[in-house]
Amino acid sequence: MKSALTAIILGALAIPALAQMSPLGLWRNVDDKTGEAKAEIRITEAGGTLQGRIEKRLTKDAKPGDLCDECSDDRKGAPLLGLEIIRGARKAEGKEVWEGGKILDPENGRNYTLRMTPIEGGKKLEVRGSFGPFGRTQTWTRVN
Description:
Order of helices and strands: HEEEEEEEE
Number of strands: 8
CATH topology: Lipocalin
């Protein structure tokens, strides 16, 4: 009886740790050039795929009415606040990696092939956007 209770308690404690090894949640990204916090992005799941929206802009020059003027798809002219920048990522079979989706850089309007990997026990997220053999990786920090 005592060992069964111990197993239940240990199992319950492990669930939050496993939940953190996913991209779901609120993340802060930084500017590649200045290293300053740029935005907070909330990643959610719907229908087995992940989406991410800009929930808060953190740059000094950010204005509430700023639009995605560089976007060339259905997001053209949409407000940056609330803009969906991650679309369609799925968990890779047997790995703690989400890929197959796209990530938008609202500064230049380009969509990149996306790969996200939780690291450091889910406290950080490696986000790689690539176009053919070229790309860059940012490390986002979990806010909650």
